[in-house]
């Protein structure tokens, strides 16, 4: 994964930040039946067509005493189109559509061809798998540990691919047991920095117009 690919991955996954209520990790225990969970995840992923959600995130960096906070809007369609929009405290928009990534920062617009290299294609695949929760097939990229409490499932992904482990110590995914989709993502970086993203007001398999995935 080249330097541009890494920057794009970090841009998509690490840019937004804000605190939101969540169950503490201390309540988690080893999952009793990981096979049952895998079957549920497979069924959920195969039936998933769209996701729409607000998100809030908190970014902890060693260079700052206080975390950096922001919030925004996210939607996903047919495993191919993604809109990641930051509304506060700044405006920043990322769209992935038809093999291209578009970034709008104030009045500046840039685009990248995700099909131009193997690194970009891998980036797109990893991102889509994380957002769908369909990461258990990435045996060459991650090893997985399973945990749960009364409200949530928790997957701890340890990177195996050298392209990923250079930057991330682990990626943690949380699934609500009431609405079986990714409700929270925690990114623990090798540097010691950490990013928490919470998805709230999630809507699954609703109609999302294609216009949402066009930068104007």
Mind explaining what this structure looks like?
The chain has 216 residues and is of the alpha+beta class. The chain has a single domain (3-213), classed as Clam (outer membrane lipoprotein receptor (LolB), chain A). Helix content is 20%, strand content 43%. The chain has 4 helices and 12 strands, in the order αβαββββββαββαβββ. Strands 1-8-9-10-11-12-2-3-4-5-6-7 form a 12-stranded antiparallel β-sheet. A hairpin with a 4-residue loop joins β11 and β12 (194-204). α1 runs parallel beside α3. The radius of gyration is 17 Å and the shape is globular.
| Rg over C-alpha atoms, rounded to the nearest angstrom | 17 Å
Mean pLDDT: 79
The CATH class designation is Mainly Beta
In percent, how much strand structure appears in the residues?
35-45%
Question: How far is the N terminus from the C terminus?
Answer: 30 Å
Low-confidence stretches: 1-8, 10-23
The total count of strands amounts to 12
Order of helices and strands: HEHEEEEEEHEEHEEE
Number of domains: 1
The CATH superfamily is known as: Lipoprotein localisation LolA/LolB/LppX
Based on the coordinates given, report the CATH architecture: Clam
- Helix content percent band: 10-25%
Shape: globular
CATH topology name, in short, is outer membrane lipoprotein receptor (LolB), chain A
